[in-house]
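I would love for you to help me understand the pair of lines that follows before we discuss the fold together.
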Amino acid sequence: MTDQRTDAPFSSSSQKTYTLVELVHRAPPQLIDHGPEDTIFAFPVVALWELILALGVTLILLFMSLSVNAPLEELANPNQTTDPAKAPWYFMGLQEMLEHGHPTLMAVAFPTLMLLFVLAIPYIDHARQGAGRWFTNRRGQRLTLRTAIYTVIVMPAFILVDNSFPPRELLRGVVPDMVAQALVPGLILTVLVLLPLLVLARSKPSAREVVLVMFTMLIVSAVVFTLTGFLFRGPGFELYLPWNMPGGYNPFNNL
């Protein structure tokens, strides 16, 4: 009688022309639509979300165009400047920054540094751990929240103090204009931005935590400066409460 075990697929018979190469604990990636390195082809999902987002934005813009009246005004008078003359909302943050320092610093140097920082993020933080997760982990969530609260408090305080005691006016004639208009406000803003990093440095942060703090500071500061210029700047580009604007000015009329 022939031994049936010699016909088994993984028998030690010298007659077989195959051998066992590897044992796997699950189906091969090709059978479950996995890509290289256990990735999943996500294009259909991403494309659908982008399409839904585009349709949603289009719908919102349509409702805004139907509900907000935007009539043509009279021809501009070159002898009379509109007061206040405000930039579009997406440039309002830059216009507000111009109120606090030299144009070269506030409209060129700082925006360039912000853009370079955003472009450098993939080179600063290239760790795979926690990638794709909001704020990476619990510690990242706490850092982001605390940085946002710090920025919401500190940046409006800077705007109020600088509006009441502007260095460029107080130091006019005392020091060179470049010092009063660029060096002093630039140094103040730099200290305010780097202070959270100095506090964080005691806990030996990772590159991602540094990026989280800096990016949160950037985004929240942009929102604060934009809302300040849009809601709280009235005639003469002075600070007023939105419901207490002189001359009947309403900031929402600029929408």
